[in-house]
Amino acid sequence: MTFLNWISVAAGIMFGIGALCAVWRIIKGPSILDRALATDVLLAIGMCVLGAEMAINRHTDTLVILLVLAIFAFVGSISIARFMAKQDAS
């Protein structure tokens, strides 16, 4: 097993633990803001996984998926922030 394989396994384990923690916060989160933040973290972990996979395999085939995930994360965060701002104003 090469050094790159060891690093890939270590990164996969860390990404997996982070994703499990984010899913736990989505399920258990007491407020909608906790769930929204955990969803953003889960999307960020997914983007990091795609970026690491592209770097390890030296290709850019999934770059479009990476950009679409980034757009979804941005639009989702802005939508929830605007929704919460309107809710607080009422």
Automatic annotation (TrEMBL):
The keyword Transmembrane helix applies. It is a multi-pass membrane protein. GO terms for molecular function: sodium:proton antiporter activity. InterPro entries: MrpF/PhaF-like. The keyword Calcium does not apply. The chain crosses the membrane at residues 6-24, 36-56, 62-85. One of its GO terms (cellular component) is plasma membrane. Keywords: Cell membrane, Membrane, Transmembrane, Transmembrane helix, Transport. It is found in: Cell membrane. Belongs to the CPA3 antiporters (TC 2.A.63) subunit F family. This is Sodium:proton antiporter.
